[in-house]
Structure formats: C-alpha cells, structure tokens
Amino acid sequence: MTADAVSAPAKAPFLLRPFQLIGRTVLGGFREIGRIAAFSGGVLIACITPVIYIREVLRQCLKVGYYSLPVVGLTAVFIGAALALNIYTGGSRFNAEQFVPNIVVLGITRELGPVLAGLMLAGRVSAGIAAEIGAMRVTEQIDALLTLSAKPSRYLYAPRVIAGILTLPLLVVVADIIGVLGGYLVAVGALDFNGSLYLKNSWAFVTGNDIWSGIIKAAVFGGIISLMGCYQGDRSKGGAGGVGRAATLAVVGAAVLILASNYILTSIFVRVGL
Amino acid sequence: MIDFSAKPILELRDVHKAFGAKRVLRGVDLKVAAGQSLVIIGGSGTGKSVTIKSALGLVTPDKGEIYFDGERVKSAKTIGTLRRRTGMLFQGGALFDSLTVWENVAFALLYRDSVSRGEAKKRAIENLAKVRLPASAADLRPAELSGGMQKRVALARAIIAKPDLIFFDEPTTGLDPITADAVNNLIVEQVKALGAAAVSITHDMASVRKIADEVAMLHEGKIVWRGPVSALDNSGNPFIDQFVNGRAEGPIQPAI
Questions:
Q1: Is residue B36 domain-shared with residue B134, that is, in the same domain?
Q2: Quick one: B144 and B178 in the same domain?
Q3: Last residue of some domain: B147, B162, B177?
C-alpha cells in the first residue's frame, strides 16, 4: 500500500518543544479520562438495562469470586496475623496490649480487608480480563461478536462488571472472618491471649457500620477492577505485545483507582458517620 | 454476466478510509447482485479487509455511502438490519474460545434470536453436518480442532441464520491445498444452497477460480478491474496479469 501523508503535526521551535510536550501529555491524559468515562458509562448502562445474560454473569461470578477465594483467604490470614503482632508490639509501649482484638477487627473490616482483597484481585482478575478480552480483540472475536449482533458491552463487559460488583463484597466478608481468625491464632498461640475473651472482645467492638463500610468499598473496587480490565482489553492492539501491555495497564490502573477511591470513600464515610 | 438492472444486495459508493496518515481506501465503488459470488483480489495492504469491514459497519468510512438491499447503511438500526441478514467468516475463524463448538455455531440463535438451548444445539449439529463435521465435535472447544475444522465451524456459524449475503475473509489462508480445496467446495455448496450472495477476499488464485462468478481487483484503495472469472487469463489488464501470474515485476510493487 502506498501511504500518503494526510497531515503531519506542526513542529514547535526548539525552545518551545518542552511546552509542546507538556501540553500534549496533559491533553492526552484528559483524552484518556474521557475515554474511560465514556466506556464505563456505556458498560454501567448495559449492567442495569435488559438484556442481561444471566448465564454469563454466573460464569463470571465463578471465575472472579470462587476462584479468587484461596488468594484472598491467604492474604487475609497473614495480614490479620501480622496486624495482631504489630499492634501488640506498639500497644505494649503504653500498656495497651489488651486492645489487639479491637484494633485487628476494626483494621480488617474497615480498611485492610477491602483494600487488600481489591489489590489482590486487581492483579488476578483485572489482568486476566484484560488479557482475555485483548486476545479476543486481536483475534477478531470482538468483530465476530458484532457481526452476530451481540454488543460487547452487553455480552462481554457487563457480566464481568456485575460479577465484580457482586462477588468482591462476598470475598471481603470472607476476608474479614479469616483476617480476624489470623489475628486470633497469633494472639492465642504466641501472645498468651485468652481465646474466648479475644473473640468476645472482637465481636463486642465491631459495629454494623464497620462491616458495611468495607462491603460498600468492596462493591466499588469490584466494579473498578472489572471495568479497567475490560477497558484495557478492549483497547489492546498489536498482537501478543499489545495484550501483555493491556494486562499491565489494567493492573496499574485498577490499583491506583482502588487506592484513590478508598481515600475518597473513607472521607465520605467519616463525614456521614458510617 | 450478472444482471445489475435489479437492485444490488450490496453497493459501495466512493468509499474512503484513512488510518492516521495512511489512506487505505480512496474511492471504492462496488456492486454485488443477489446470488452473485464476487471475489476481491489484490496485494497485501491494499484495503481488501477494510473494504468488507466497512461494508459490515466494523469500520466507519471517512467518506462515501454503503447500501444494503437498497437501504443506506448509516444508523445503528440499519447496521443492525445488515448484520442480521449477513454472515461473516473471519480469516482466523474468530471462534469464541470460551464456548463449545455448538455454542459457537448457534451463537446468533442463542443470544440474538433467544432460541432455547436444546433447539439451538439441534440446529448447530445439523449445520455442522452440512460442513462435514460429526455431531461428536459439537461439545469440543475450538482449541481442540485443527485449522481446517475451525474454518468449517466458522462456516457453519456464518450460514446457520440463513443470511442473504456472506463475507469470506481469506477463507483458505493457512490451510494445505487439499483442505483449502475442500473448504472452497463447501463454500460454493453452501452459498448455492442458501441462494445467498458472497463477497470473498483472497490471495489464493485456486480459491478465486473455484468460488468466484466475478472478480474485482483492488489496488491502492481503488477497484482497478472487474470482470467475470473466465476473463482472468485474458483481461489485458497489467494489474490482473501480474497478480494472476504471480510476477514481482509489473505495476504492483511487492509489499516488502
């Protein structure tokens, strides 16, 4: 094919090139935010309007939720155990060792459970979704879907996002229980706590608000993880290298957005007293 | 010769498409009559795939008009109508890895026409038989099939909804000559059985001679020759002569 030059970007004078670079980067950033927002809007509309492919949603719930249980459980048990040790060590400086169960349960339910489960799933699920959809894009499977009158937003993306939003809260509830159990094992096994008293203190201290705030965060993180995977997969091009790049971008994007939205959600919860 | 006094099933008028600085299509004009098999030939990167992707609404042309069965294809509704009445066989098959063979074949029935799974599977197996695949292949995954079998599954998927027009993108690429000939035979047989029109793109001259009623040559984003397949060997057109005889010397520059 003969390529004709249709237009070439104007080159700025040498001294102005740094400004041109800054401008191009900023504009590129805004363009990307706009693209993500438009993509997310389309997918979220597909999530709440018929037709919803229930079989696909269930299949994705299995992949996103059930198969993530081991990694989330292992993360939670070790974090709960390490948290108990740290709080014991720190608390002993001002004779506050007895607060270990209270702070472990608070830390796990409000913060560490949802954030760490979210970050683990960003690695496992977001990358997986991006790689799967990216491979579908480069092998023309997404074009094939379109020719068969199936919208990718409805058939591919919405089931994954619904599965993320539904299953991460359930995973976080499991992570909360296992995380508290991790703290319990260390407290009873290594720090000479009374087992029944530890559990009684944990249960008495935790409130419905603590658990709900973690669950709400988890639902938001679940949506972010799936959306970033779908978005990067959808935009991938250029063969195996492009698919790998999409997976990397999905993990990085999901992790950053989880941490940023965690701060925003925590600020809102503090303000409204949740 | 094909009678164009009747309304063509597909028509492209002055279609242009550029990707960045690369102008791929520079005014493609094409008519396909109902029941006709048109094969588009041309060197690598001349815009053959972009032409059929434009016709299917997978690529939006920068300029030009596309008509399907006399209606201009522009809105989501008209693109939807076109896709419901067409089938497409992609170069690599583009079978869905996560679904079984029968779910691939019956995809349009399951997800578009809301046919029950039992009925859809029955019709998928019937269509697999049409492309000489046994019912035992129905529950396999695409990755468990050979390249030739994948092409046949893709053909079964393209014909299951009885389309009026089928697009074939390099249907024999990557196949040995014997399997390629078998796939060509199946294409001719199934297109004729449906009474559908077909638009194929290929480099394979054996395929061209087997499946084409007419041939159009695309060069630098334009149709430079069109005629019946019987005229290929004495067209008097330097582009066609070079392509048909596979010579590096001539008006078409090799894509290396």
A1: no
A2: no
A3: B162
Residue B202: CATH number of its domain: 3.40.50.300
Check whether residue B63 and residue B184 sit in a common domain: yes
Give the angle subtended at the CA of A112 by the CAs of A109 and A113, to the nearest 5°: 55
Q: How close B1 gets to chain A, by Cα (Å)? A: 30
How far, in Å, CA of A177 to CA of A171, rounded?
Answer: 10
Same domain for B79 and B172?
yes
Nearest to B108 among A4, A143, A148 (CB): A148
Strand partners, B16: B26, B63
Name which of A52, A143, A148, A160 to mutate to probe chain B: the one with the most chain B Cβ atoms within 10 A of its Cβ: A148
Read off the pLDDT of residues B112-134 as tens digits, 9 standing for 90 and up.
888 999 999 999 999 999 999 99
> Model's pTM, two decimal places?
0.87
Residue B91 in domain: no
Q: What is the ipTM of this complex?
A: 0.90
Per-block mean pLDDT, blocks of 10 residues, chain A (274 long): 50 85 93 95 94 92 94 95 95 90 95 95 95 94 94 95 97 96 95 94 93 96 97 91 94 96 96 90
Pairwise CB contact (< 8 Å): A148 & B96: no
Q: Which of B68-99 are b and which e, b meaning 16 or more Cβ less than 10 Å from the residue's Cβ? A: bbeeebeeeebbebbbebbbbbbbbbbbbeee
The answer, for A148 touching chain B at a CB cutoff of 8 Å, is yes
Report which of B12, B11, B17 is spatially closest to residue B62, judged by C-alpha positions.
B17
pLDDT digits (tens, 9 = 90+) for B196-244: 999 999 988 999 999 999 999 999 899 999 999 999 888 888 889 998 8
Same domain, B50 and B63: yes
In chain B, what residues touch A59 (CB-CB under 8 Å)? 98
- Bridge-based pairing state of the strands B63-68 and B71-72: antiparallel
- Amino acid at residue number A75: T
Domain extent for B42: 1-85+164-250
Q: What is the pLDDT of residue A8?
A: 56
- Residue that finishes a domain, picked among B162, B195, B210: B162
Using a CB–CB cutoff of 8 Å, tell me whether A52 touches chain B.
no
